[in-house]
Specification:
The protein is mainly α. It has 3 helices and no strands.
Length: about 90
Amino acid sequence: MDALSVERSFRGDFGIIALHVWMLLRRMREEGIAGKELSQTMYDVFQDDIEQRVYAEGVTVQAGKLLPALEQSFYGSAVRSLSQLILVVGN
């Protein structure tokens, strides 16, 4: 993570993992029904992992609000990444 200048924290880890998962999901969905099913499984594992990381950080009281916010953050990042990819490839 040092090479990317990403801080070693929950937020930094989440950003790198979310980007990696998004790239995998994007690629798997191009593989038909089997790819879509695998991408759903991968996303479910990602969500479970994030939930475990939240609890490992000691967050219990606000976890019910934090987890949906992280999911929204993931989707927002995915949309931004796709937009940037379209701009780069389009030029």
